[in-house]
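Protein chain data
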Amino acid sequence: MSNQNTDIVKKMYDACMHKDAAAIKELTHPQYKLKDPMMEVNGVDELIAMIQSCPSDNKFENLTFISEGDKVVGTFDAVGSGSRMRMCSIITIQDSKVRSEEMFYDTAQISKEDREMMKKSMPGAKK
C-alpha cells in the first residue's frame, strides 16, 4: 500500500507541475485541504485555480518520499523563476486520492516581488 500511495503523490506532483487540471481532479479527494505557510486551499477546484493562476512555471527537483500507512512525507526543491526553495510536505491519502497536504518551508526565502505576485494572482494566498 505504501508504494501505491507514493505513486499517487508522484503523479499528483507531476500533474501540478504541468498544470494538468484533469489529472489533478482525478488524483485529488473532493474534500482536499492544503495548509501552507503562505496560503490555504479548500477543495480541488480551489487547488486547480491556484495552480493555473500562478504566472510562473514551477518544477520540483530532488524529490524524496517516505510512506507509512496513509501518510507520505516528501522533501523537494521547488524551482521557479530564478528561485529555488527546499520544502517538506506531509500528504494524507484517503480512498486512493490526495486528501490533505501540509507544507513546510522558510517563507523568508520568498522575494517581495513573488509575495506581491502571489497576493494578486493566487486565490487562497494570505494577505
